[in-house]
């Protein structure tokens, strides 16, 4: 008999997270404490519960641009080495305690230099925090592997420099590169030099695309820039015609959707975030249902745990409630994610065979 799909059991299941922003995952209490310590005086409230509610409500705006405005308050309090170490350590601990066994956590070094840190110092501090948090969690029996992704902001002009840092820190805990920020008006090809450089360096990168804008953004990310994965990519459904499908007939895939599916290009979907930014109408109507049925390389992610008030456990539980997924589908999401990680193949395989499969087998055969 499979174990019941309760919140507690889903927390016990091994989970893999590829898309989580460091500056979107702070504990609300930490935001308040760091604001007090660093003299940041623009928080909307200094009450923990009110602040959690405020972040969720302000981010639940129906627009990516307004969703992103909430980051002023988190970025505002992460401007020192100590703050970066603390936030990174708590991130690793929180993910490990939630049953995440492998995570790629991204952040934009260029956003943390207001008080004089260099990009290298920002990266060093975050990696130090991940090491401390990982060790603290392991001491409690929660083993997690955490890697960093370096993000460049798409409206700015630091991507080539940040890409070089992703390569320079590749053996120190940085697994890849990303671009983020407002999508409409800032196509991926603006940063083509960074992506061409990364490809010459045999480096990995993902691109936020198909979230706040549609197919042209996804097409550029894949066909011009050569992205390994799509950050969200949820709007790929705009290239899938379900209306044309008759009874029992499969939906018709356009050429781009076919390419993404055929090449097994991973989609870093984040259901709650996608609802908040207006990329999906609700969890029940989220394209993850269709994309899973059609066997795209679907992965489940948190994006921003603070803004979405979510965890990997709550995202998976929400999908179980909306789509009635069994353990086998949660395992499929998890293996998809681990296969798509920017970690060497042998290390991915070891986590799949030694951690993920035995973990789900225990729950399925409980
Ligand atoms: O989902 C997102 N789409 C685009 N940009 C995002 C998303 N979540 C966070 N960001 C931005 C805001 C953060 O300050 C930045 C670096 O993590 O990335
Ligand atoms: Zn994101």
UniProtKB/TrEMBL annotation:
SUPFAM superfamilies, sorted: Metallo-dependent hydrolases (SSF51556)
**Which keywords accompany this UniProt record?**
Hydrolase, Metal-binding, Nucleotide metabolism, Zinc
Q: Which cofactors are required for activity?
A: Zn(2+)
By its UniProt entry, which InterPro entries does this protein fall under?
A: A_deaminase (IPR028893), A_deaminase_dom (IPR001365), Ado/ade_deaminase (IPR006330), Metal_Hydrolase (IPR032466)
Residues binding Zn(2+): 19, 21, 208, 303
Catalytic residues of the enzyme:
211
Respond yes or no to whether keyword Zinc is given for this record.
Answer: yes
Could you say which residues are annotated as the site Important for catalytic activity?
232
- The chain positions of domain Adenosine deaminase read 14-357
Q: Which Gene3D superfamilies does the entry mention?
A: Metal-dependent hydrolases
Q: How is the cofactor bound?
A: Binds 1 zinc ion per subunit.
Report any Pfam family annotated for this entry: A_deaminase
EC id: 3.5.4.4
Q: Give me the Gene Ontology terms describing cellular component.
A: cytosol
GO molecular function list: adenosine deaminase activity; zinc ion binding
Reactions catalysed according to its record: adenosine + H2O + H(+) = inosine + NH4(+); 2'-deoxyadenosine + H2O + H(+) = 2'-deoxyinosine + NH4(+)
Instruction: Tell me the function of this protein.
Output: Catalyzes the hydrolytic deamination of adenosine and 2-deoxyadenosine.
Q: Which family does it belong to?
A: Belongs to the metallo-dependent hydrolases superfamily. Adenosine and AMP deaminases family. Adenosine deaminase subfamily.
Its recorded name reads Adenosine deaminase
């Amino acid at each position: 008999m499979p174990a019941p799909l309760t919140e507690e059991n889903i927390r016990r299941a091994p989970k893999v997270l590829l898309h989580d922003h460091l500056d979107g995952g702070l504990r609300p209490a930490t935001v308040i404490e760091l604001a007090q310590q660093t003299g940041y005086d623009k928080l909307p409230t200094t009450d923990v519960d009110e602040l959690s509610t405020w972040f969720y409500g302000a981010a639940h705006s129906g627009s990516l641009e307004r969703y992103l405005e909430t980051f002023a308050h988190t970025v505002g309090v992460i401007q020192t080495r100590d703050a970066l170490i603390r936030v990174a350590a708590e991130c690793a601990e929180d993910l490990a305690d939630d049953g995440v066994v492998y995570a790629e956590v991204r952040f934009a070094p260029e956003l943390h230099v207001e008080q004089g840190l260099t990009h290298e110092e920002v990266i060093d501090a975050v990696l130090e925090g991940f090491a401390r948090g990982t060790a603290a969690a392991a001491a409690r029996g929660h083993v997690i592997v955490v890697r960093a992704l370096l993000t460049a902001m798409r409206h700015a002009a630091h991507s080539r420099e940040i890409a070089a840092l992703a390569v320079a820190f590749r053996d120190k805990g940085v697994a890849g590169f990303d671009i983020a920020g407002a999508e409409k008006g800032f196509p991926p090809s603006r940063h083509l030099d960074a992506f061409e450089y990364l490809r010459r360096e045999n480096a990995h990168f993902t691109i936020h695309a198909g979230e706040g804008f549609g197919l042209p953004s996804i097409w550029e990310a894949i066909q011009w820039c050569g992205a390994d994965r799509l950050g969200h990519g949820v709007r790929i459904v705009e290239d899938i015609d379900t209306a044309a499908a008759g009874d029992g007939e499969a939906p018709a895939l356009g050429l781009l959707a076919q390419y993404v599916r055929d090449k097994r290009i991973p989609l870093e979907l984040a259901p709650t975030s996608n609802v908040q930014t207006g990329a999906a109408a609700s969890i029940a109507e989220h394209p993850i249902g269709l994309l899973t049925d059609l066997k795209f390389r679907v992965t489940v992610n948190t994006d921003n745990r603070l803004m979405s008030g979510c965890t990997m456990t709550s995202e998976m539980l929400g999908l179980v409630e909306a789509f009635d997924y069994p353990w086998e589908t949660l395992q499929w999401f998890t293996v998809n994610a681990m296969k798509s990680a920017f970690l060497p193949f042998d290390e991915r395989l070891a986590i799949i065979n030694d951690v993920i499969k035995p973990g789900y087998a225990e729950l399925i055969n409980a």
